[in-house]
Amino acid sequence: MSKEEFEPWEEEYECFNNNDFLRLVEIRTRDLMKDKTDFELKIRLCEAYYLNEEYKRAFSGYSKLYNEDSENYDVIYGLIDCMKKLKIDINDFEWKKKPEILTAEEGLEESYMFMKRKRKPRSVTELYLRLYGHVYLDFTEKELLARLLKDQRFVIVDEIDGVFSKLKRRAEKP
Questions:
Q1: How far is 164 from 94, CA to CA, in rounded Å?
Q2: pTM of the model
């Protein structure tokens, strides 16, 4: 299939499927050249740099975008991801408002409080997405699953496949 036959999303899909992030950088650079003022395209290019392991370049781009919009969560989370890869302490960055970062232990406790005894079982993915939002999650779904499985306060009620397994809070003894 020639490049002309691709829908715009298909070209990027191919890059993700083949882990060809250098090509993704090329595509997103080309797209940004068509409209250099498009904020979302700038974020997408920074994301491509990150995926291509060009962390300094991604960090530089996200930093500039942060100065334009310090409340954009894609920019804030991109900055934090880059800082982790570059081993930069987040306290060393000049935040206009320091982002809230939720640790794995805090995520576990939030999940426990959310899953009251009378609530229906929830998948790890549901719990993770509930936590995700206006805070940066410093853990993955799989890390949350591992903690939930080790924690005796939870019980699996429907083991499907990893993060899709359904859990509930274990009944407390009176």
A1: 38
A2: 0.81
